[in-house]
Please model this.
Amino acid sequence: MAGRGGVDDKVWDGYVPPECRRNPAILRLNGNSIWEVAQEPLHYDIDLNKTCGIGPTMVFANDILEKDPEFGIIGLVPCAAGGTSIFRVMIIIE
Model:
């Protein structure tokens, strides 16, 4: 899912909580299919029709690395398009 935290009236407030911090061991595949260090908003060049904000993904990735510092590199592949119903996604998967 693409995050909408911190978005009000179609504007992201720019605040990144400590739990969503950048980490060189967390990468994202950007809209040009190039790996880069992940940072919020994670979907900024993927979900182009919506204002992106904070989501749960960076919290999850940082938590994994805190629990297991030897885990290695985490690669995130953001691909959510806001407003897509879960029913439509299920049909595409089938």
User: Anything to note?
Assistant: Helices lie at 57-67, 86-93.
